[in-house]
Specification:
Layout lengths: L2 E3 L1 H12 L6 E5 L6 E2 L1 E4 L2 E3 L4 E3 L1 H13 L4 H4 L2 E5 L9 H11 L4 E7 L5 E7 L4 E5 L1 E3 L10 H8 E3 L11 E3 L6 E3 L8
Length: 191
């Protein structure tokens, strides 16, 4: 299995990534084929270097709007795409926890991470398997005629998260589903 991003989708993700020094997240749209992502859609979110927190009410509105367009969740919500501000496209523990907490009742889901220098990774979750596996991701070679105005979509949906004092040695993150702060405890005494 390989997931393929349309050239338009790839260009849009990279555009959104380059507009922000923090993570930015959204969902892949797959109206015709579950492994061919035709678009990337942002929903309102607060972002930081380690997280993108979706507004739960706006996420519900997004899903209702997609349903009105004939797109059930498996065509507009099962592929979570987000950027990492650095070169790493390995899922963080927060990424993995969020991915599982949202999709563990779904028969399948995909997490795609795009880093700087166009690094990309994809991870397929299969309920039957009970876990996730890395899968290849490819970019469609066809170039679209014209790119839409993505600036408005970005400015409408992305705002910087309120700064939380850094937890220097232990790291921190946020659950993008609830906005609840997650603080990791040290594995041993560091005094």
């Amino acid at each position: 299995i390989q997931i393929v991003l349309s050239r338009k989708t790839w260009n849009k993700i990279r555009y959104m990534r380059d507009k922000e020094t923090n993570e930015v997240g959204g969902f892949g749209i797959t109206p015709n084929n579950p492994i061919f992502v035709e678009d990337f859609v942002l929903v309102p979110q607060e972002v930081s270097a380690a997280s993108c927190i979706f507004d739960p009410e706006k996420l519900s509105i997004y899903l209702e709007e997609m349903a009105d367009k004939g797109l059930p969740p498996q065509k507009c919500h099962r592929i979570w795409i987000h950027t990492h501000p650095g070169n790493s496209v390995s899922p963080s523990s927060t990424d993995t926890e969020n991915f599982y907490s949202v999709y563990h009742n779904s028969s399948w889901a995909v997490m795609i991470i795009v880093g700087q220098q166009d690094a990309i990774s994809a991870h397929l979750y299969l309920q039957e398997f009970g876990g996730q596996i890395a899968i290849p991701a490819a970019i469609e070679s066809e170039i679209p005629d014209a790119a839409p105005d993505w600036d408005v979509e970005f400015q409408t949906n992305v705002s910087e998260e309120i700064k939380i004092p850094a937890v220097t040695q232990f790291g921190f993150g946020c659950n993008w589903q609830t906005g609840k702060q997650i603080v990791k405890k040290p594995s041993k005494d560091v005094t």
